[in-house]
């Protein structure tokens, strides 16, 4: 951190100097001050908020990392993308906050039109802007309950939809998130279509979508009075699982058959990551509801619940104080335009295919790499004891992550119990991807 930024902290009243810039010092101080962290402080350093470019991150000691997390799928165009900074500077004088759900303003209206336009389906849509992905899911849920008058929903295991209220009720990716907290919503839960570990013992080539039949059976015996089925088009936190399209389509058809709505949770997989604006498009399904988050805010906290018009039976059925403030809306509009002008959807699909090819080389090389799967720039590698038994190897996964971060300087994250995921920023190049795969290769070699 340079003198200027240390001075800013001093001016804010903190007695801080260069000697304090060590990971250990700041991790200790963070642990004393912050209630929670989702990741292990033993693994990751303390990030320097004043430097970084594209897919290059730095910790407070000045160590450089190659980032393949994209800020957990948030930083679509990487760190401190120059044209983004310039655009933001050009709108610095707009009003920062206007109460968007109380009064109309132009940026949020244009953004709602734009978001409705890039998401699948020509039906009449309405948009509610939110401040997070979980709230985007909850906005859709409330709308579906409001419109149908039904209260129960279909969800999956594993699944991740957020950590609060109704969203947490649908989450089922890790008992740490859920146990002890009350269930806010009545969920009929079935297995996510997880073809590498098909819970029904079949394989995708010759299966009869037993997962869809399991849902049919659940609705027969538990009741089909459901408002909405909520599905991730690619299961993210739960283990980077790509479902078979015929299973997603089957779930969609069955949902519609019983008169319920279908929601695609695009918080992690959406905004062009998979080569389509919404990942559900890869499965040939047009959802009734779409929850967006993460990348849509261009680095700021924003989400969007998108649903069929009129979405709510009346005004004031749902609201948030903060939502799509003028500056954020303009930044989001800029991001969408920049992605179109820069042909990022095509690039993401192409780079994703390249990454899968490179990671499949690791699958050929190591007995412990059981599966490589993904669409576009959302890719997972599942670690097992050996390919035949497919026994999950969570400890090995943890050692690989630790080695990758600390020794190879590859900033990477796990998913599920035994998976490593790639959700890089869209500015990543094939050279960066080669570099990342080589670093991961070394981390695996030193860990098996
Ligand atoms: C698929 C999915 N839905 C919802 C969420 C929750 O988003 P947020 O943490 O912004 O509430 C996440 C976060 O990782 C997610 O991956």
Secondary structure blueprint with pairings:
Layout (H helix, E strand, L loop, with lengths): L2 H9 L11 H11 L22 E3 L5 E4 L2 H4 L8 H9 L15 H13 L6 E6 L2 H16 L3 E6 L7 H6 L4 H4 L8 E5 L18 H13 L3 E6 L13 H13 L3 E5 L23 E4 L10 E6 L17 H16 L2 H22 L3 E7 L2 E6 L10 H13 L3 E2 L1 E3 L3 E4 L7 H18 L1
Pyridoxal-5'-phosphate binds next to helix 6.
The count of DSSP E runs of length 2 or more, i.e. the number of strands, is 14
Terminal-residue CA separation: 36 Å
Estimated structural class: alpha/beta
What series of H and E elements makes up the topology? HHEEHHHEHEHHEHEHEEEHHEEHEEEH
* Rounded Rg: 22 Å
Residue runs with pLDDT of under 50 for 5 or more positions = none
Number of helices: 14
CATH architecture classification of the largest domain: 3-Layer(aba) Sandwich
Instruction: Give the rounded overall mean pLDDT.
Output: 97
Which ligands accompany this protein? pyridoxal-5'-phosphate
Strand order of the largest sheet: 3-9-8-7-6-4-5
CATH topology of the largest domain: Aspartate Aminotransferase, domain 2
Largest sheet descriptor: 7 strands, mixed
User: How many domains make up the coordinates?
Assistant: 2
Q: What proportion of the residues form beta strands (DSSP E)?
A: 5-15%
